[in-house]
Amino acid sequence: MQQPDVKKYLLDIIISIDGIKTYTAGITKFDDFTTNRVVYRAVERELEIIAEAITRVKNVNSSIEISQSKKIIGLRNRVIHAYDTVNEDIVWGVVVKHLDSLKTEVEYLIKKFE
Hints:
Shape: globular
Number of strands: 0
Number of domains: 1
Strand content: under 5%
Structural class: mainly alpha
Helix content: over 70%
């Protein structure tokens, strides 16, 4: 049986993904995303939370696999420690291409803890 914190961290990931989806609802163009600094910064913050939650999941149970976890954590590190080198294309790409599959994967993991 896993420690109960794992489920909490997985739920934090879902909450952050849902937050990103809410913030970016109606934004379909890259330029609209990058010029709306409030939305852009909110998305960056949620990506930081997602990466931190993944790190905590791995610390509690290193056998839990989350696809692209190294890339997600790497993006977090760049946002926090090298903010001036963050590629807006990558952040947008995560929003439009990868969040849905991450959410599906994490929801599957959550079911394992119910």
